[in-house]
Amino acid sequence: MATTAHCAYCFEVLLASFEGGSALPLSAFSKAIEAESSSSSLESSASPTSSSGTYRTAASATDGQMYPMFVTWNTVTSRGGVRLRGCIGTFEAQPLEKGLASYAKIAAFEDTRFNPISAKELPTLECGVSLLTDFEDAADPLDWTFGTHGLRISFVINGRRYSATYLPDVPPEHFDSKEETLGSLVLKSGYSGAKKWDQLGIKLVRYQSSKAKLGYPEFAALKKRLGVV
Q1: Is the Cβ–Cβ distance between 39 and 65 less than 8 Å?
Q2: Stated pTM of the model
Q3: Is the pLDDT of residue 129 over 90?
Q4: Which of 8-17, 41-50, 140-149 has the lowest mean pLDDT?
Q5: Residue 132's closest CA among 212, 51, 210, 48?
Q6: How many domains does the chain have?
Q7: How many CB atoms within 10 Å of residue 113?
Q8: Residue 66 parent element (H or E)
């Protein structure tokens, strides 16, 4: 589902924003990568994975399909670690190309937790694309699986609705228990009252995702190799 082509297109949109030009269409990357999908050099340079770790070829999601999606920008540190630089998406299904173009820029420039990404940061960036699937109402706030499900919680206190989400890869990377995850989500929602997560009448929707990642050096090499510079 999510592929190298989707991440490459997000980089292309970001690069065009800095250069003031037009971005190549998603199809330019999808078709070129599909044509050489059997090349081991492509798979070794950047192998997109779903949440279950399965390799996805460029044909896994067609450019005309619609998905809820998130685009994540990370900074790759000098020691090979990653640091979040921006992440925004939508639970409303979007046309793939239009949605990726929109949220690549929104995540880069409008995530209020961070300063807008600058052009000089490009060489250090990694892009992640998450296409969301399999939405289900959970039986209770603990009815989900670490590493498999993303979470979207909502609850109402004094007439005000609170909500927050974590993508599937967040809980196992940052928390030791479901209870700790839910406590963090409550704080992320903006609620600062005295009630604990299990006193809030939380409604939880669980979902899954297919995720691909690509670093800027791999994106630059990909454009050169595919002749789409």
Answers
A1: no
A2: 0.85
A3: yes
A4: 41-50
A5: 210
A6: 2
A7: 9
A8: strand 66-76
On average, the pLDDT of the chain sits at 88
DSSP state of 74: E
Q: Note whether 77 and 71 are within 8 A (CB).
A: no
Q: Strand pairing partners for 204?
A: 153
Q: What is the CATH number of the domain that holds 144?
A: 3.30.1490.150
Query: Structure tokens of 223?
Result: 């454009």
- Residue indicated by tokens 């994106």: 219
Residue 167, amino acid: L
Residue 226 has which token pair?
């595919």
What does the block give as tokens for 140? Answer: 């209770």
Tell me: do 29 and 72 sit in the same domain. yes
Q: What is the CA radius of gyration of the chain?
A: 18
Per the structure block, which two tokens stand in for 4?
A: 């190298």
Quick one: 26 and 139 in the same domain?
no
Residues 6+ apart with CB under 8 A from 134: 207, 208
Check if the beta carbon of residue 125 is closer than 8 Å to that of residue 75.
yes
